[in-house]
Amino acid sequence: MAKAFLTQPLEIDQRKIRTEAKLLAALVSLRQQAKAFKEITVQDLCQQAHVSRATFYRHHDNIADVIIVAVLTAINEFQLQVDQIPTINFEIGSSLLIEALYQHLNLFALIPWSQTHAQVENLFGGAAQQILRLREKSQVTQRFVSQFIGRTILDFNIQIATSSQLPDQTEALALFRLLIPNRLELNDRDSHKNQ
Which InterPro entries does the entry link to (predicted)? Predict the structure, then answer.
């Protein structure tokens, strides 16, 4: 597959990065304390994170937004990592995905707890659609396959992150390669009708 830059690096100042890390760590802590997500107020989160409410509202509309921003950042990091690889294939891509999953286990565990699955699924689908667009698939194929792949990878990640017995990274990679579709050589004979 040809190398293509999937995304431009996000330019974020260090204070914002530290604030986002504190807010995310506070959410992880609140989840581990078995607090119901719907019962957490911005005040609760800010106290736990040692961040002012003004700072919170400067960057976010609501608490779920903290998770969405963290997912966007993780996707961006992954895409930048993929851009560094001259030739990407399923084996390399799946290894990178599992490494990213294990770097962000706590983030993926927050998704079902916060009920942000639908929003995150759309983000994963969008990232997959960028890749399919580079492969010049039809628009219908892009939409359908990207949503399917995005949902499948997200569900796999959540299942691993919330498992009572976390498989080691090698096991998770073997499971991923067994369960996730690894060929996108679709027949686009009707692509001219769908564009």
Answer: Homeodomain-like_sf
